Amino acid sequence: MDTGKGADIVGAAGIAGARITIIVSALGAGGTEHVVSLVASHWARLGCAVTVITLEAPASEPYYKFDPRVAIERLDVPTEKATKLRAAWLVARRLHRLRSTITRSRPDFVLSFLTRTNVLTLVATRGLGLPVIVSERNNPAVQPFGPLWKWLQLRLYPRAFALVTMTKGALDYFSPEVRRHGRVIPNAINLPAGWENRRGNKMLTAVGRLTRQKGFDLLLEAFARIADTHPDWKLVIWGEGEARTELEAQRDALGLSNRVEMPGLTAKPGLWLETAEAFVLSSRYEGWGIVLLEAMAAGLPVVSFACDWGPTDMIADGEDGILVPNGDIAALADALSNLMADEALRARLAANAEANVRRYDAAHILSQWDVVALSALEHSSARKMPVKPYPAKAAG
């Protein structure tokens, strides 16, 4: 696609005044929520009437900052563990509230994020005549959903106006019928404003939800193998999640109680960038790995498993970061040890990383979302204003 300034101007001008509804399950501290805040705020600044609908309780507060012109509607039907009977009742309740709120927001098109929410949105909008864009934010081949949600995903996605993924690998998982309407839009760099460099404390940093996907158990094993070789380094794992108790027990069993910190969520987004000396991504699989991109953009040397999908898109191995075979604990330990021992290597990788990821500049990535939005508006029966035509193509 044309990524020049002309395309940016046409896309922005074409969507000004549009009514857009964005749906996501929650607005906590995650990569998807970060993207929602960026895209919603961007469209609000362009003069669109943007409504974000979540399943959260009314008192919930977003972790990321939104433009004040973005309206946030909370349906008070959050996800929870439940019996099959109650789960079915909760789904029906979510569908009813979701359809009512979408209708009330009077959108020209709807944008939904994450598999279960995408399925609910496609069901809730049936018969409304609205273009619905769905976005997958993880690895659809391995992310656990359960057979019913997987069946619904494969059955309903062909009805979507478009599917947006962050990598071509994720898009290729879907059928040709779905891929024909697919777009690949990677995550954008959005470092926190005014962050300060307070580095120099030999902190190896990892960031993410404390879940099996993020592979922090593998990271602890790797760090245990090299901790004695690098007694001046600490490992800090930022994040929160259901695996905290298990990971803390593993840390203590490995004798790392004084070498590994797990402080939870940062008080504000991106605060971990200020104190990290090096960054490691130990995920078993990813949709993208936005924290890896942020680390590179902030001038940190990085080591990552070459998992599907994301890290291999961002890192040129040996040039601006280090990739190791996915799940290989010994290789991860060796790569981390080499990095921790070599200040010159850290400086070279960090400088190259900061320069090479500029291709993910927020303005450029958001312009790709503008093109998808413009394409949806051209097909929206609810659109009252004429739209300047512009070809929407898959972003490479």
In short:
With 396 residues, this protein is of the alpha/beta class. Helix content is 39%, strand content 14%.
Structure explained in plain terms:
With 396 residues, the protein is α/β, with parallel strands linked by helices. It folds into two domains: 5-188 and 361-378, Rossmann fold (3-Layer(aba) Sandwich); 203-358, Glycogen Phosphorylase B (Rossmann fold), CATH 3.40.50. It contains 14 helices and 13 strands. The chain has helices at residues 5-15, 31-45, 84-105, 115-124, 147-156, 168-171, 176-179, 216-226, 244-253, 290-297, 311-314, 329-341, 343-356, 362-378; strands at residues 19-23, 49-54, 71-74, 109-113, 132-135, 162-165, 182-184, 203-207, 234-238, 260-264, 278-281, 302-305, 322-324. The strands form two sheets. The chain has a seven-stranded parallel sheet with strand order 3-2-1-4-5-6-7, sandwiched between helices. α3 (84-105) crosses α4.
